[in-house]
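Regression report. Comparing outputs from two consecutive submissions.

Submission 1:
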Amino acid sequence: MTIKNTQMKSSVYNYLPNKIKNFFSTGHSRSIRAKKNIFASFGLKGISILISFLLVPLVLNYIDITKYGIWLTLSSIIGWFAFFDIGLGHGLRNKFAEAIAKGQKELARIYVSTTYAILFIIIGIIYFLFLIINPLLNWTKILNTPVEMGNELSKLIIIVFTFFCIKFILQLIGIVIVADQKPAINDSFNVIGNFLSLLIIFLLTKTTNGSLLYLGTTLSVAPVIVLLIASFVFYNKDYNYCKPSFKYVDFKYFKSLESLGVKFFILQIACIVIFATDNIIITQILGPAEVTPYNIAFKYFGIPIMAFTIIITPFWSAFTEAYTKNDMHWIKNSIQKIIKIWTLVVVGVIVLLVISNQFYLIWVGDKVQVPFLLSAFMGLYAIISTWNNIFAYFINGVGKIKLQMYYGIIAMVVNIPISIFFAKNLGMGSAGVILGTCCSLVIGSFFAPIQTIKIIKGNAKGIWNN
């Protein structure tokens, strides 16, 4: 009897570990890689979310709500310049994955080296033009701030843009790692950068008075330090085979990278207009102080978006590999599983909405008031954007993005006027801005699933297959 009890206990204790082991060791090798990266990314993103949530009250204790709104708006504007990579980042991601899938490591190195060279030239020209144009810009008017902040803003702009340009090039190491279906490693860079920012800002609260200049410098420098170290370490170890080198720069491959890159470039512009103009609209219509509650709600409902993004990120390059090898069965099964997971996102958003007011009170206290209507539309945005991403990641992975480019342009054109109409003419405030974004995204919610089905079934023709 004792022996039987011991055996039963042993089997119970081993059941869960064995289940976990089988989960991560069974299935297609592509699926196993995805599972391992998803699991690791959840841990890393969980830490990242915790740090980002700790940063908000810490920053609000360091600077006031208006200055925080100014910083959020300024960082959004600087982020617009990301589209100057003319889609090369996404082009590299697909081409690198294709090259590795075919065992062509030297070609992968050519793609990497050429992309670095082209982006260095582009960002050099942009930075030179910025130094010429910046003195002519009135940032107090652009950001709707008091005139006396002009001197501080001028210094901050130069610092932030300088480090943005450096990060612009260094972040290619992350694209290479993600293209190699190891997004968890790239996620670790963000965690380390956020932790470094949190640590420095905490020290600033103890040693200095609230300074927008110090805050902006810290948040700009920290990720650059992390990416610089990561580039040195990974290109000298795991990715030594594709380490960028002048010897492997070959501009004739620019056309190959840019064949997809131009379309991705247009999509990036559309995404910037849709997603990165909200802060400017709010600043100009309602004032910079209103940017803060908007971004608090955005960050809160960004939790399900981030969780879902963790799950689907490994599939972009996996879809590229599977499509290259004509493994449609795996693609179909993967998308069906992702859709089932998306239904949990909907449930999660509803739960977050129900407890939103209580959570805001615990998180930031009574310093910031977030209207329930803003939370409701932000939840709707989370549901729509995650649904769209299921199919966008597949379509992007296989490079059939012409149709997506067209409806992206339509969404870009209608987004700003609709957002202004809802916010200003209908008096909905910042809630109207995110509602306008939701309306512009609905177009893709219908066309992307149809295109995905056509490609998988092999009957996509014309624009559906370009």
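Submission 2:
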Amino acid sequence: MGAIFLSASVPLQGRAPFDRDCEPQMIQSAVSALATVALGRKAIVWGGHPAITPMLWASAQDLGVQYATAVRLFQTKLIPHEDFPEENKRFANVTYVEAVENDLAKSLLAMRTAMLESAEFDAAVFVGGMEGVNDEHALFSAMHPHAKCIPVGVTGGAARMLAVKLNYTIPPDFGPLDFMSLLYRELGISPIEQRQG
């Protein structure tokens, strides 16, 4: 059973064009829906973000799922540890990838490559985001060409642009905000599937 890659962030103010149609509440709802659908059923792999990591931690707590087995978090060592969210300390399986030449772009590429080599992936979910969502989609598609890509466009930011680029729309039998039903179907997970605690 393959893992799910999550590429998500809340666009920062002043980061045009990503902040123009950003929907922070939608981003939170979509990430929470993914957590509800997948945690304890499929591994979620992502590169951490100060706004997203606490959401996944809270969802795991609510669902009674152990973070150590449910998620895999990757970070670059170029970013000082004190800049990471407090929730990082609660992960038993954070992978810190060595920085490359003290260069952010090279270090992020090394981290993303390690992250996407860490598992076989069935799908990737893209929520909100900025340049990193585009970079991660390009790399994910190259490394896992047969995996499904699900850009949740209504969250705005780079995910909306990616949905347009991929001509991805929420199927008409779902409401535009029915993230859980969408993700259950698109990820091939049953609502009655047991979670691994």
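Expected: both submissions complete independently.
Actual: both completed, but the second showed a warning that disappeared on reload.
Relevant detail on submission 2: Residues 153 and 164 are 8 Å apart (CA to CA).
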